[in-house]
Design goal:
- By secondary structure, the protein is mostly helical.
- The chain has one domain.
- The protein has four helices and no strands.
- It is flat.
- The N and C termini lie close together (5 Å).
- This is Na+/H+-dicarboxylate symporter.
- It is found in: Membrane.
- Keywords: Membrane, Transmembrane, Transmembrane helix, Transport.
Length: 99
């Protein structure tokens, strides 16, 4: 729980101590490129693994054996929620609650 605020503080202090704006720009560009490349690689790995493993291919569920009452309960809960409530619930109340 304490790790995220510590890392955030270290990054902010490191950026604040950089006096050369060119160096800060290079670090920022490198960070964005690093993030984009790793995110794309993770996405490609996930697609390849999902294509090879084919999750859910061996599950032969008979639709008549499913309980419609359970689904109706979820549908009723979803109807009562609004888009504004959804966004308000995903934003944490405190900085510590976010980690």
């Amino acid at each position: 729980m304490v790790v995220a605020p510590v890392i955030f503080t270290i990054i902010v202090i490191g950026i604040a101590r950089m006096s050369d704006m060119k160096a800060l720009g290079r670090v920022g560009l490198t960070t964005v490129l690093y993030f984009e490349i790793l995110t794309t690689a993770a996405l490609l790995i996930r697609l390849v693994v999902a294509h090879i493993i084919e999750p859910g291919a061996g599950t032969n569920i008979d639709p008549s054996s499913l309980k419609a009452d359970a689904v109706a309960g979820f549908a009723k809960t979803a109807e009562s929620q609004h888009l504004v409530d959804f966004f308000l619930k995903i934003i944490p109340d405190t900085f510590v609650a976010a980690s």
